Every structure is written in C-alpha cells, then in structure tokens.
# Entry
Amino acid sequence: MSLQSAPAGPPLDPEGPPARIAVITRIVPETPDSSTYWARFRVGEGEGYSFEPGQFNMLYLFGIGEVAISISSDPSHPQLLGHTVRSVGRVTNAFRNLRPGDEIGIRGPFGRPWPLDSARGGDLVVVAGGVGICPVRPAIEYAMRHREQFRRLVLLMGAREPSLFPYKEELEKWVAQMRRIGVELHLTVDQADADWKYDEGVVTTLFPKANLEPDRTTAFICGPEIMMWFAARGLLEVGVPPQRVHVSLERHMQCGVKLCGHCQMGPKFVCQDGPVFRWDEVGELLEVREL
Amino acid sequence: MRFLDHQGFERLLATLADDGYELVGPTVRDGAIVLDRIEGADDLPRGVGEEQGPGSYRLTSRGDGRYFAWAHGPDSAKRFLFPARELLARMRREGGAFAVETAPDERPIAFVGLRSCDLHAVAVQDRVFMHADPGYRRRREAAVFVGVDCAEPGATCFCASMGTGPRCTEGFDVALTELEGGFVVQAATPTGEALLARIETREATEAEVEAVAETERTAVAAMGRQMDEWDMPALLYRNRLHPRWKEVASRCLACGNCTSVCPTCFCHDIVDGVSLSGDVATRTREWASCFSEEYSWAAGAVVRASRESRYRQWLTHKFASWIDQFGTSGCVGCGRCITWCPVGIDVTEEVAAIRATDGEVEVVTS
# Structure
C-alpha cells in the first residue's frame, strides 16, 4: 500500500486527513491480541515531528479509519515510532493485515504528557498493568536515559498472566540494564505459570516490597481503570499526595482536538486536558460509574 | 428606530438575494415550520401559527397576515453552519492521494427570521468551532443574520429565564419586531446598516417604539416554562448519583431527538469510508449523539452502557460542564428538546426535581 501526503499549502482542517505518512518497518507480536507496529516517517514527512512521553497519535489506515494510539517508543528517536495496538475494534483489527512496507497516516502528537519535570530530583514510581505498560514506556525510556535526574526509579509492573506482558522480547535485556543502572524493577502476574520467575499477585501487592518513600514519590500509573483506581488509592493510603499521583485515561477519541466530544469525562476532554491527569483532577470523577 | 412596511420587507429579502446570498428562512414543510432555502417573502409561513407542548407540535391557521407569529420549529441555524453530514476530504491512494478537494462553491447564507434564542445558540457554537474548524468559520463569517423578536413564545420555551430572549439583543446584523402592517427595524453592524440604507424605511413613531417594548413584555409573560440556573454547575456535579437519573431513564428512549434538535449540540463522528474500487477514500463528519451506545465506545467496551448514564451525560454537559468547558451554559432555553422528545421529557422539570431533592443518593440494594 502506498500513500501520498498532502500538498504544501494552507493548514489542513484539524480533523482532516493525516499530514504525515510513515512506513511500517517491523511488526512485533506482544500478547495474543496486541502487536507493536514500528514505523519510520517517509523522507521529509517527519520534519519537525517530536513527541513527549505519554502523548498519542491518530493512526490512519487508508479507507478504513483512524484510531488513537499511545506512542510507546523512545522520545529521543521521534523519526522511528512504535505503537502497540490491541485489536479490539474495526480499525485496530485491520492493523493485523499490515505488513512491513505498508504505509500509515499519522496525525499528532496529541495530549498532555507525563509530568517528568515534576518528578525530577525525587523518586519516580511507575505502576503499570498489562498493555498499560505501553503508554508509560517512553517515560521509562526517558528516565533510564537520564537516570541521574531521579533519586530512586521504581518500576512496578503486572499483568494477568505471563503471556499478557508486552515487550517480552526486551524484558531480559531490560532487567539486566536496569540492574546495572540501579532501577528497582518488580514484576508480577496475577496467575503465574511454571516458567515465571518473578512475583505472583495483583500489582498493588508489590507496594510493601517496594518500600516507597511517600514524601519523595511521584507516581505514574497506567493500566485498566479499575487497576489504576486501586493503585492510586494504595499510594494515597501510604501518604503520597494526590497532586503527585498521575494516571493515563482512555476514552473514545476521534478528533484529538477537543471538537468531536466523544472523550468527555465530566468537564474534561481526555484528548487534550489529558490523557495524563493528576489524581486530584480526576479521582472524584473516576469514582462515579459510567461517567 | 426605523419602520419597514411589508413592501420594504420584501425588498430587504430581494436585496440580500441580489447580493448573492442564499436566503434561509422559515417555511412550512411536512406539517412543521422548518428552516430552509427560500426564494422570498412568499415562502414564509404567513398567517401560520403553532401549538406545542412536551412531545407535541401542531400547526394552526391564524387567519391574519403575520409572518412571524409562531414559536420556532425543529430547525435552527445549526444544520446550515454545522451540517449533519459534511465531506471533509477525499483522498486518492495513488496519484494525488491525501489531496484535499476544495469545498464546493458555497453561497453565503442570509438567515431570515432567527429568534434571539437561536442567535445566542450560534454564539454558543462559535465558542466550540470558530478557533478550530475552517469550514464552520468560513460559513459563519460569510453569513448575514436577520433576527426577529419573538412575539409568541411556545409552551416549551424558557429563554427569558436563561437570559437569551425573547427580544433580539445580540448576534444579528438586522433585527425586526413585527407589528401590524410592518416591522420596526434596527441594524447592529455595518453590514446591517449598509443593507438598511438601500431600502426605504421611515422613522418609527413613538407608538411603534413603545409597541416593541410591549411585544417583549407580552412574550416574557407568555413564556411557557422557566429554568432556575442557580448554583450551576455545582448542583449537577454534586448530584451525579441522584435517583432521578434512573427515574428519567425509565422514560427516555435514548432516541437522540433532543441532541438533533438542540441548536448547540456539537458532538460528531469522524467517518472514514472508501470507494468500491478501493482507490478513493473519504472522510466525512456526521452528527453524533451521546445517547447512542457507540458514542462512548472505547478500547472494546462502552463507557456509558446504561440509559441513565447517557441522560446524565447530556443534561450535565448542557447545563453544567459546558460552563467549565466554554464559559457559557450550553442551553439557550429554546425548549426544542422538550417539544421534540417523543415521550415529552422536560429538562426544566428534571433539573427542578434534582434541585428539590438536592443531595439525595440512590440507595443500591444488591
């Protein structure tokens, strides 16, 4: 599949077709229903493109549609983008048909990133569950690259079972590298199998083991909403202030520019006011079912 | 203030048409007064009246020569400035893919006979679309607005309590007040002044000027309903678990009529399509409704599965979170959502019910 990009001219409709085209270079299966699609901008298409950890792109498949996907690759290499896509709907299922060499449209980046600045000098604690690891991975990559900017770097990651952990390909490498640079990594699954050599139990059971220091902690939480709710409550209980607990929310996003209305949660437009929110901004909203 | 007789009024419309504007005004179609393209004054619903209430709307014959002695029907300026379906782009897979086709040659619109509520509704949608949507901005900036003071508000109207009517106070180029034999007319913009300067008018008499004020007083007194906005948005925010949501959901059909007729509802879908040959893809924008299941579909699940959560979203957005998002209420008190609700759900009644039992929480028994 080959696409052509928009001609130079006046700025396009913000809801219009994507201005940039990228070529799929590699597809890595991650879990039974998700894969990471690595894509490189076509020559000239990525000019001026950069993103911050926690932001998302609208990815377009020709004639099929567009879908909001978090960027899960290293922000220091913005010309080569990794998006981990879980196949749950019409467009995300069509991703399964992509092959290296195919082209996708990219509109973005959108949204409020993880506040790495506010974590500097203190302890960064990342709590992630399942494919919730994907949107927070660029923040982990950044923190590892700039290890000296943080006092402790604590990663608490869980999944329902080992097969639902993304990035297994890199996991061993990560573990070794993290040990080397002093990253405290704890892995757990709700249900272990014979080969699993880390912890067993939901991700919040890692909290006591991590020995967190609440007055120095800034937490980034990403995972299913119910998991984030329990994780945030757990952190608040040990004394982490709500202003330093951050979650990344998922809602229906069609435009990315606060126009289409679908991603509303109370007064918030998740696409631009989020997707990363402080707990004091959204904790109350998340307590209301079906808001 | 000036006075415009019927001949002058016809001249006003003809002048706009001569200037290249497409006239959009009230006309009778399918048993209702709708807004549509009109040729001139002959297409207006002269001598037509209406009776409306929750879930009911009927045209009546007044047997007089009044052009605008009725309360609005289902249409507002929304479907002209923010069309229900709009092609944003057509993309070609090869040889020109992603080239955005230029918009078809649109004639600028002259809206004739918009009421104050609908002029305010345009201002509310401006806050949503003007900064970001080139299509809306193009149509909006090219349009001319001829407002008409509302003399006969409907039984479901509550603009007076929302501060958005019944007299035209802003958002128009020219505003008319219909009297016996003609109109008192005023211009509010250079466009409106230039327009009036080309049409024969005379100085309005003292009695005519007084009649304008009397029209407003009568209309306020005849207003069918009222909305108490006190303590918004907090009132609805602190009542998210109020039992009334479940109660209203037992009546609501989740049909989305209210969002269609609402002059400010802006939610929409971005719809991507493809030709049968697979070579040409389109992107269109279509009205969406927060009452549909797919509206809140995210990551393989529906956020608002229950009807009560969808009704709560709509009402709370309209009267509360809209204020946080856009600095204004999303409601202009036109009452269309009451009239066109097939089961006659009344927003003024729903808000009043929550206010009357403020703080009540649904007791969930398992």
About this structure: Residues 95-100 of chain B have pLDDT under 50 and may be disordered.
